[in-house]
Specification:
Number of strands: 0
Strand content: under 5%
Helix content: over 70%
Distance between the termini: 49 Å
Structural class: mainly alpha
Shape: globular
Order of helices and strands: HHHHHHHHHHHHHHHHHHHHH
Largest sheet: none
């Protein structure tokens, strides 16, 4: 049976923008909780009367709970995209984003009025956050896959980078939204009502994403995989891709001989895993998720803390653009080493300022410099490297393993931050500086890892990468 060409728009730009909404929701869903951390403590954690360590552990788990979903979503993404297609899988992600937005804002839905369950609503809240995380995991894999498969070769690299910009843009948008909502009432209002509106606000981009997905076609590559070459040709023509021989190239690209995961040596897999692990162990998502909490610990009010978080998002976006403009000129290793050194110095400074209890403009600048260092290097460049270093015969397996390791590392770091930051013994010894010094040390190790173990991939073809890893193994 031939697949109908879905959608009324044949514009590649429109299709790519629609797919990048998945990236925007990725960033939006993961960062929206940054404005609600204090409300989670007040409404769900403090009433339980737990010990400080137990309370911090539960609070950290709650902030990181969506990441459990991302691991599930990333694991399912390949199977769903292959069986049901890229577009329908993204539609599922949009539905999950919407359900998560409604359920996180009103976890008591179906059981009573908002607030009627008290702290007992925490379990339901985490379930809805995990649902949103599954949507993030799906979108993180399938949106760039879809973009790459519909883009003309001469524009593919540029168009795929829109996904990374959309993720950062989604974070920046939700920081603005959280700040705007917080300004509608006093701090008590934010703790009772405002935090719910922050989560509910995600319904708007989720509904927009859902609707726009019905206006774009399915991936022609997937249609060829399913034997619908006529449908694939119709999609290609609707997108303006009429180059002779293109269908033959798609057929040939699908015939990639798979090889065992360690065919190119264990060093290749170790490098891929360490890229993903270090990207998280340098502490970036602690800053992105906990920024308002950190700024409040520096003495800022709720709305000021959220406004400072907007500055974090703006710096993140700006330096990500710089990285995309320079990565092919300066090379991967120089950017990665430079970024790691900047992050190490920034985190060492921030930890020291906490230790000596000298917080203020200096601490804010250290935070922003840290974000700039990450956005210039370990943010976008890790994804470039993961796309380059794995030769085609092992790419699917190796990428899946690396991305899964990244989400697991993200979960562990996000969960552990409040434990490290709130442990009475560590606070007595380091006055909240310990976690930042730890992330600084990880940044130093990350720089050494890149210097010693990572080959420069600038200008190399995938075939050359395969030979490089074989030569290194030998």
């Amino acid at each position: 049976m031939h697949q109908k060409v879905a959608g009324k728009s044949g514009s590649i730009t429109f299709a790519v923008l629609t797919a990048t909404l998945g990236g925007l929701l990725f960033g939006y869903d993961t960062a929206v909780i940054s404005g609600a951390i204090e409300a989670i403590d007040v409404n769900f954690i403090d009433p339980r009367g737990l010990s400080p360590n137990a309370g911090d552990s539960l609070a950290g788990f709650t902030v990181a709970s969506a990441l459990i979903g991302t691991i599930i979503g990333a694991a399912l993404a390949g199977m769903l995209a292959t069986r049901f297609g890229r577009r329908r899988s993204l539609i599922l992600a949009a539905v999950l984003f919407f359900l998560s937005a409604v359920g996180s804002a009103w976890p008591e839905i179906g059981f009573g009025a908002p607030g009627s369950m008290g702290a007992d609503a925490l379990t339901l809240f985490n379930v809805y956050r995990i649902l949103g995380g599954i949507g993030v995991g799906l979108a993180s894999m399938i949106s760039p896959m879809y973009i790459a498969e519909i883009a003309p070769p001469e524009r593919r690299g540029q168009l795929v980078t829109w996904q990374q910009l959309a993720i950062i843009g989604g974070m920046l948008v939700v920081y603005f939204v959280n700040w705007g909502i917080a300004r509608q009432g006093d701090e008590q209002w934010v703790l009772t009502t405002g935090w719910r509106l922050m989560f509910a606000s995600e319904c708007i981009p989720a509904v927009l994403f859902f609707g726009m997905l019905f206006l774009i076609p399915e991936s022609p590559r997937w249609l060829v995989q399913k034997g619908d070459e006529e449908g694939a040709v119709r999609v290609l023509h609707s997108l303006g891709l009429r180059r002779p021989g293109l269908l033959d190239e798609i057929r040939q690209s699908l015939v990639v001989p798979r090889r065992p995961l360690f065919s190119y040596g264990a060093a290749l897999i170790a490098v891929g895993l360490l890229l993903s692990i270090f990207q998280q162990f340098v502490g970036i998502n602690v800053v992105l998720y906990y920024a308002p909490f950190i700024f409040k610990s520096m003495g800022a009010s709720t709305d000021t803390a959220l406004l400072q978080t907007v500055a974090v998002g703006a710096v993140n976006l700006g330096f990500t653009v710089i990285a995309m403009l320079t990565v092919d000129r300066w090379g991967r290793k120089p950017l990665m080493i430079t970024g790691a050194i900047v992050m190490a110095l920034s985190m060492a400074t921030l930890g020291t300022l906490f230790y000596v209890d000298s917080l203020g403009l200096g601490a804010l600048l250290a935070m922003l410099v840290y974000i700039a260092g990450f956005a210039l290097s370990w943010g976008p460049v890790v994804w470039v490297l993961l796309a380059e270093i794995f030769p085609n015969p092992v790419k699917d397996q190796a990428m899946g393993l690396a991305v899964t390791a990244q989400w697991i590392s993200n979960f562990l770091v996000s969960w552990s931050f409040k434990i490290l930051d709130g442990d009475p013994t560590l606070v007595a010894m380091f006055n909240h500086g310990f976690a930042y010094w730890l992330y600084g040390a990880m940044s130093v190790l990350a720089a050494l890892f890149v210097w010693k173990m990572l080959p420069e991939t600038k200008g190399r073809t995938l075939e050359e990468m395969g030979l490089l890893w074989k030569a290194e193994r030998a």
